[in-house]
Each structure stands twice: as C-alpha cells, then as structure tokens.
Design a protein that fits this description.
Helix 1 packs parallel to helix 6. The two termini are 31 Å apart. The protein has 237 residues and is α+β, with helices and mostly antiparallel strands. The protein has six helices and 14 strands. A hairpin with a 2-residue loop joins strand 6 and strand 7. The strands form three sheets. Strands 8, 9, 10, 11, 12, 13 and 14 form a seven-stranded antiparallel beta sheet that branches. Bound molecules: guanosine-5'-monophosphate (5GP). Its EC number is 6.3.2.6.
C-alpha cells in the first residue's frame, strides 16, 4: 500500500491517504512535544519504537475483543489503519494518581486509586485540552448520544482490564493512559491513534523508574532506552 497525499500533520504523526478510501497510513515521527507544544525536542528512533509498541498492543487488544483501527505495520515508521471520524474526546484512564490528577485535586503522587478513574478531556490544543463532563461533551456535539459516552467509558475500562495485568506480569505498573476513539465507515466506535509510552505512564514495579514520556516532560533523559525496554518486555514471553 502506497502513501498518497498528506492529509494531516499532528505533533507525533503524519497521516496520509492511500488508494483505498477506507484506509490511511500513519507515519510515526521522532518529534517530542509536551505542555501543549511549549516544550519540543526529537529523539532518534522514538517513532519506530512507538509504531512497534502500538502494533503489538493493538494486536493484543484485537485478540481480546476490542475493535481497533489497526490493519498492519508496513515498516519501522508506518502503520496502515482504517480511516475514521475521530471523536474529539481524550479518554484518560488512571490506576495510580500522578500528573494532572495530583496537580488539580491534591491527591498525593503515587496513591493507588480505590477504583479505576475514567475522565474525558476535550481534544482541543487552542483551549489546552480542558476537562469535560458528559453534558459538556453533548453540548459541544462531540458525540450525539449519552450511550456513546457510556460506550467510550466501557471500552476504556475493558482496555485497562486487558493491559494492566498484562504489563504487571512484565514488571510494569500501568499508571495511567490516554485513549482516542473514532467512528468507522459503518458508524462503529473503535479504538484509534496509538498506545505507546507517549500516551501511557509505565512505572517499573521494582524500582519505580519512569519508563514513558515523563522522562522528557521532567527532563530525566534516557527516553529511547526506556521505550526500548518497554518494547523488549512486550516482546518477551
Ligand atoms: P495527565 O492528565 O496526568 O497529564 O495525563 C494522564 C495520562 O494521559 C498520561 O499517561 C498522559 O501521557 C496521557 N495524556 C493526557 N493528555 C495527553 C495528550 O494530549 N497527549 C498525549 N500524548 N498523552 C496525553
């Protein structure tokens, strides 16, 4: 499958049309951004690592009954996937308090939450991705019906129920993550975007070491090494 016109360039990926109107190609970039684009850098190999990690995780989720946009990995930096209408809601799933949850609510960093928290952010860089409740999402027309919001929450919890024990077995705590969803050509809500250390937080179970984009956000260094370790643990049986 060949790349055709560039459809869209985001912070971490470029999206290309193909000869098939239902399929597009994502090119995973080495660029890194944080704090709504205010901090920028680039790390050689990061795009390929995220492509490979996302490929493995989409396959795992598909095997466990989650519908995703994934079709196949084409080469190191390219993934073929279904074309969808992206729902402009970032679905955030949290098992352990950190990041904006500790900043916003004063919950101590590292607190194990009494139950898995699912939150919605408005995917809107100009507004800085603000928190959304269900009524906001409906008023903004981000989805049409309440049951679509319920489905996003349900699917996000299912993804967590698959990924959390999977990573724990590999010595990583899945602290929190961000999912995106879209509607395919039949109107089904499916999981889209990527699942990688760019949008998940992984803490080593033994050492507590951060193995995700917080290494860049917090200036810790060693980002590509950490992402490679995440991939190696995924590939180890
Ligand atoms: P927080 O709200 O604490 O900053 O992020 C919660 C989780 O969602 C983290 O795993 C973080 O990586 C992910 N996340 C939240 N917003 C975004 C975003 O706009 N882009 C990316 N790549 N990840 C996000």
């Amino acid at each position: 499958m060949q790349k055709r016109e560039l459809l869209y360039e985001g912070k971490a990926k470029r999206l290309y049309l193909t000869d098939n109107k239902d399929l597009v190609i994502s090119e995973f970039k080495d660029d890194l951004t944080a704090f709504n684009g205010e901090k920028k850098s680039s790390e050689v190999g990061k795009g390929a690592l995220n492509n490979k990690i996302s490929t493995e995780l989409f396959k795992l989720l598909e095997e466990n009954g989650i519908q995703t946009h994934f079709v196949e990995m084409l080469d190191d930096n390219h993934m073929l996937h279904k074309k969808v209408d992206v729902i402009l809601i970032e679905v955030i799933v949290r098992n352990i308090a950190t990041g904006s949850l500790t900043r916003n609510l004063g919950i101590e960093d590292g607190t194990l939450l009494p139950f898995t928290l699912v939150e919605f952010d408005y995917k809107n860089d100009d507004l800085g991705d603000p928190k959304l409740n269900d009524q906001h999402a409906l008023i903004l027309g981000l989805v049409e019906y309440q049951d679509e919001l319920d489905k996003l929450r349900r699917m996000a919890r299912q993804v967590n129920d698959i990924l959390r024990p999977y990573f724990f077995e590999k010595g990583l705590n899945l602290v929190d993550f961000k999912l995106e969803f879209g509607k395919d050509s039949s109107g089904n809500i499916i999981l889209v975007d990527e699942i990688s250390p760019d949008n998940c937080r992984f803490w080593d179970v033994e050492s507590g070491e951060k193995m995700d984009k917080d290494r860049f956000r917090q200036g810790l260094g060693g980002l590509a090494v950490a992402y490679e370790q995440v991939l190696n643990r995924i590939l180890s049986k």
